[in-house]
Amino acid sequence: MRKRRRILRVLLVSIGTGIVVLAGLFAIAWALTPIPDTTQKQATAQGSVIYYRDGRSVLARQGVDRRNVELARVPEHVRDAVIAAENRSFYEDAGVSLKGTGRAVWSTLTGQQLQGGSTITQQLVRNYYSGLSQERSVTRKFKEILIAMKVDQSKSKDWVLEQYLNTIYFGRGANGVQSAARAYFAKDVEDLTVSEGAYLAAVIQQPSRFADPKGSDLVAAQDRWQSVIRAMSQTGTLTAEQAAAQRFPELKAPKKPFELKGQAQYMLEQVTAELNRRGYTDEDINSGGLKIVTTFDKKLMQAAQRAVEETLPDSTPKKVRTGLAAVDPATGEVVAFYGGRPSQSKYYDSAFSAKVMAGSTFKPYTLAAALNNGFDLSTRVDGNSPLHVASASQAIPNDGDRSYGQINLVSATQNSVNTAFVDLGQKVGLDKVAETAELAGIPAAQLDKQKEAASFPLGVSSVSAVQNASGFSTFANKGVHVEAHVVRSVTDAAGRKEVVEPVETKVVGEQAAADTIYAMQQVVKYGTGTAARLYDRPVAGKTGTTDDSRSVWFNGFTPQLAVAVDMFRDDNATVSIPGYGTQFGGQLPAQIWRAFMTEAMAGKPVEEFPEPSEYGWSSRWSEPDRDGDVPDEQYSPPPSEDGWDRPEPDFTPPPFSDGPPETESPENDGPDEQPEQTAPPETEVPDQPSVQETGVDGGRGGRDEQPGR
Q1: Are residues 59 and 296 in contact, defined by beta-carbon separation less than 8 angstroms?
Q2: Whether the predicted model's global pTM rises above the 0.70 cut
Q3: Residues 556-561: what's their mean pLDDT?
């Protein structure tokens, strides 16, 4: 008997000691296992949504499909379904289930598949906090239990449930209950029915199998859904009658991954690039839950595509690329563009990325520089051909070696006289021309190589359609350039909104801008750009055709919108279309411009340009005859009573032929200026070899077709 008592005493002491030791070890483990202060990035990551300028139409989705919601937005019956399916004692337990944990530990020790049994709190801890892997080990499980108990002590049950519902994966690429509601039933979580909420609760167990169940998987999904309904009845959240009335919900067909089509890929590339420049990382975009509102107008984007694709002949070679860019002068917002067919432009778009010689569309920057530095529209410049400049290695001619004599700046612009603009550049100083172009948004790096060449004013530097449209928007905005941009605002996951404030730069004075516009209006009224006329409102613009028509442009604007259109080829060859011949800026580019602007300006109020200087009304804008003598009669009709020149009532617009032009003779459709012989236009393509660049002397500038007859 004594021996038995001694053994029992030793056994009790050992057990007690063991309990004390275990308690001590548990206390040490408890003290050494704090709640992690960081969360797993994937657990809280929210993808960003990119919108058109209206802030409602979705342009693209980037990153993880998760939209966090407050618990108050989740209906009671949805919460009840999840609790009934996953953890019926959720609101009573201490964050762990001893029975479930014991079963999971035993399966781990015996090498069996890890079974369920974890509470909602344990599942959250495992998927939410950093430092807990998904590996099967007793150590990891013990750590999970400790943290779950601490979370249960320090956080409310509602907080745990809210994080869980926003963290858990539901299949179909949907993370969190809000994204799941959209993915399975195309509705927000607050609109889910009891039946639909029960299905989402059923999905949690096997999200991949139940994402789009068919055959035996559908039978299994229905059984699992029915078990959730029964569980809700057993927990008292549904009456027996309510449970019996439930019917298996109709699942929406799974949506294909969000695909970007047409111009959307180009839009996304530009938005991402601008966000990066503004300090947002790719990680911010893919997992920061940003709401990004762009400057792109959905209807105008469609109009730009129609204008290009419906105007270009079917015979247009695949290597001919077309770019279009539309910029709001007052805000700098790029509201629309056309970057080319995606199948054609695999590596770069034709509006932002491609840069080709500006040709004569560069001349207005020279004109504005002069008008802002003491010259006026009545200033006479040398329009004779050829023109010898000391710094140039060869004389610069006009087309056909035609001489214009001493002409004013309006006539020089209207007729795009090469020698006149070279002479003007020498008079005002090429440094001032470069400064004006740079302030108007043309990057200095694109000007530096040519800015000391006598031919610099003729457009031997390369620009993109967006840059050129943005540059001309300066004139429409009274001489102030507003930085071109494609992002309007960014709102983060916490609701903090950053509105983009573009940089504004004073380029030239208001009067210099007004006088530049007046000269450019004559290009559209009587010069090389008549095909771009809008007959309900004033237009100012400039055509541009470079050496051998390697790039052809029309760049113009109304007071509300500046738009540039260019055409060029992949191989830097002549832009020629079978049946239509070699192209010039006043042909297809001007017609595309007009097609787009006709739609873009429809319903918009007619706004007038500012009046030019007083001498603009008193001077007699004269055109020299072919011998270079200035005729006595006034070339342009006198202004109307409201101060603006108007077409005669019986004016017939230039025909837009569906077939080849009647003649391709220089007299009617040919170039107005001498073709260059020294350098092809430069096309800059990212990650691809550059074509031949213009040398120090540069080319001899742009060419333009004859004034419209």
Answers
A1: yes
A2: yes
A3: 98
Mean pLDDT, range 339-348, rounded to an integer: 70
Q: Give 202's DSSP letter.
A: H
Higher pLDDT, 473 or 695: 473
How do strand 406-408 and strand 380-382 relate by DSSP bridges? antiparallel
CATH class held by domain 319-483+494-618 = alpha beta
- Give residue-wise pLDDT tens across range 576-611: 999 999 999 999 999 999 999 999 999 999 999 999
Tell me what pLDDT residue 660 has: 28
CATH architecture label of 69-245: Orthogonal Bundle (1.10)
Pair 487, 331: CB distance under 8 Å: no
Give the separation between CA 551 and CA 545, rounded to whole angstroms: 6
User: What does the block give as tokens for 176?
Assistant: 């969190």
pLDDT on residue 493: 87
Tens of pLDDT, residues 275-316:
999 999 988 898 889 999 999 999 999 999 999 999 999 999
639 preceded by cis ω (within 30°)? no
Q: Are 477 and 332 in contact (CB under 8 A)?
A: no
- Using alpha carbons, select from 362, 370, 322, 562 the residue that is nearest to residue 442: 362
Tell me 632's DSSP state. Answer: S
- Domains of the chain: which residue ranges? 69-245, 319-483+494-618
Give one DSSP letter per residue of 507-575, joined into a string.
-S-HHHHHHHHHHHHHHHHTSTTGGG--TTS--EEEEEE-GGGSEEEEEEE-SS-EEEEEEEETT----
Q: Is 136 exposed, middle or buried (0-12, 13-18, 19+ CB in 10 A)?
A: middle
Query: Is residue 700 a contact partner of residue 385, using CB atoms and an 8 Å limit?
Result: no
**Residues near 691 by Cβ (< 8 Å), separated by ≥ 6?**
572, 680, 682, 683
